[in-house]
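Work package 3, deliverable 3.1, input record:
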Amino acid sequence: MFKQLALLLAAGVLALSGCSEKSLTNVEYGNQNQILYIANGDEPQALDPHITTGAPDFHVISSMFEGLTALNPQTLELEPGAAASWELSDDLMTYTFHMQPEGRWSNGDPVTAQDFVYSWQRAMSPELANQYAYMMYFIEGAEAFGQGETTDFSTVGVKALDDKTLQVKLTAPTPYFLQILDHHTYYPVHPATIEKFGGMTARVSKWTLPGNLVSNNAFKLKHWELNKDIEVVPNEYYWDADVVKLKGIHFNPISQQQVEERAFRSGQVHLTFTPQMAIEKIATYDQNEPELIHKDPGYSNYFYIFNTTRKPFDDVRVRKALSYAIDRESLVKRVTKGGEVPAYHFVPPDPEGHQPKSYFTYDIEKAKALLAEAGFPNGEGFPAFDILYNTHDNHRKIALAIQQMWRTNLNIQANLTNQEWKVYLNTQQNKDYDVSRKAWIADYLDPSNFYDLLLSYGGNNDTGWKSAEYDALVEEAQHELDSTKRWALYEQANKILSDEMPIAPLYFMSDINLMRPNVKNWYGNVLQRHPYKTVYLENEAK
Amino acid sequence: MLKYILLRLLTAIPVLFFVVLMTFVLVRLAPGGPFDAERAVPAQVLENLNKRYHLDDPMPVQFGNYVWNLLQGDFGPSYKYPSRTVTELIATGLPTTIELGFYALCFAAFLGIISGVFAALKPNSWQDYSFMSVAMIGICLPSFVLGPLMILLFGIQFEWLPVSGWDVSPGDKILPSITLGAAYAAYVARLTRGGMLEIMSQDYIRTARAKGVSRFNVVVHHALRGALMPVVAFAGPAAAGLLSGSFVVETIFQIPGLGRFYLQAAFNRDYTMILGTTIFFASLIIFFNFVADILQAWMNPKLRQSLGK
């Protein structure tokens, strides 16, 4: 009988051996056929640029849709997109865009100025409930229309002067308006397709499904299987189709970090897109395969917020003491290890613009003195409090390190509280926390991304901290066109943040990708803009 | 028997209603809503979203509308995926989950029955202890441990099999099916062993052996049918468990099945999707238990007679 069992086991092993026959991996197949395989982090919520909010969605959408302007992936300088050129009026409030003469949708229809008028009306319409509609409120009349105060779109400063000329009037000079046009909320949609599948404001619509979706960028949708694969192929009608080398891109929704890393190692994807790679893996790649790991500085930050409506964090001396007692150098070197930059001010330095100053440093003695001044000498009497973070191993490791720093440096006890993502958001927004982790990634290259966050009335200001002086400075800076004056205003706001410390900046984050060396023309940049039209795959030597 | 079947079907209705009610209440009690995001949704937009999905109606009205639509076969739209309805999402994920469950069940039955029979034929021997020890490990080892272990060994170390995906490369179904079926194989092995031991001590088996019937024939033709009774009883819950419990394996191996949708729906607070999948899985569990009971009655004349009375 046991001989039979042995035979059976042998058969099983043979069956497995049969499966070991090497077939082509995705990467091998992709290299031979110019097809890029990307681990896209998660399944996109939607492929509708006016509904979507997440990064995985943007990665796919940006391959298919193009705004009036585009950003150079190496320099982040403005480049022509759906608009070939533009002019700005003397009062700096009216833009006139001239569309690409050869601009076409993936079904061959010309991309017109009227398409943009229709699309922006759709994006602002309250009935569609676009969560990014506020990004358009720079345009004259857009806020009133978006808030439902008027239903007359002719009151909005967007007009098609003819098929190929679009005029946009702003409420005030906005230095970064041309950059924002590369945001997905400003992307155009094909009006006839939208109307065919339920109309302008139909949120539940089939227009984004394969076979229905019509797009205007270098690629068009070929296949979309939920939780499995999205495939885009070149759009032969694209105005700059000659530069496109890839024959296709596959976006695989791999939501688990470990699975993503394994998929990369086993040749299923050329590159990964997950913003938070497992910390321990970073060190392994650094040591063994440094050519595969890319750490690009981001225009983003990771910080802790204090609940300033709750004792003892309503005392600025306590907030400062806690912030000064964090060894940020050690945190990025020993804990996060991803090339992050320690942060001693809130806003990341803009490579070509605002360079905020640091008004504090890691200073244990000063921290102890401040805590004593606040009534807690050597931490005595300081109540135990919670550090809140959403469930994630990296957040836990950072919280553990900071807990230890506060215990050692200030003799105070912090407890760690992790919550599932939606619970964490709810807790933070209800201000039911003591200290909480937060991160912010900029949508465009301007400090307003960050300073606006802490406006008293800002929807994302969960600290409870309010400063009329700060609000006034930030509001003034938003419309100041002289960059020297503008940076000076922001510097004053930066000083207030350091003086008041409603948040403790920890570090400026890195974008960490795993990427095969044969992926060419893919550049790291602080906004993580990776236009696919010039990307190609070089034949691998091995 | 017919009366028994009808009664079982009727009792399923209040059970399902209770499942709907409890799920509806529990998902609404969970903190966080479907549209909560890291970047706070402007109040006006949130209002519009709630209006669009009728989340601004009083709770009893929402429940009444949901049940009314449900009776007409409409599970509603998904909040997470605006271009799809819940019915479409279930239809998208279900075939993969069924396929995975089927392979896992085949693996569990094949390995479990063979191991159980071999263990029972040499009771209290080292072979028996070995089989049952492996079975115990199989029961104790959760799929979120077994899966990554198998991936490390067969995927990364030996490079024999793909580590993730479904229908994308040859052999990508082997590791997930084994991972999902392992615990069930272990149960089947233990049940088969127990059944075999009991049957093999029966008089008619001794008689058959005394008459010179070969060991193979005794085992296969005389003993196995009776010995598999507990396995058949277990098959219903096992099938339901394999279908409804595959979400861990689907997540580990990136399989686009219904379990993964279920898990994502819970994290996204996609109320209609949570309700839809819960109702669907509850119906499956009720159905498979029902089928197992009928099968058991069919295989056991004594039980059939008692139900007939």
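Chain A touches chain B through 63 residues (CB under 8 Å).
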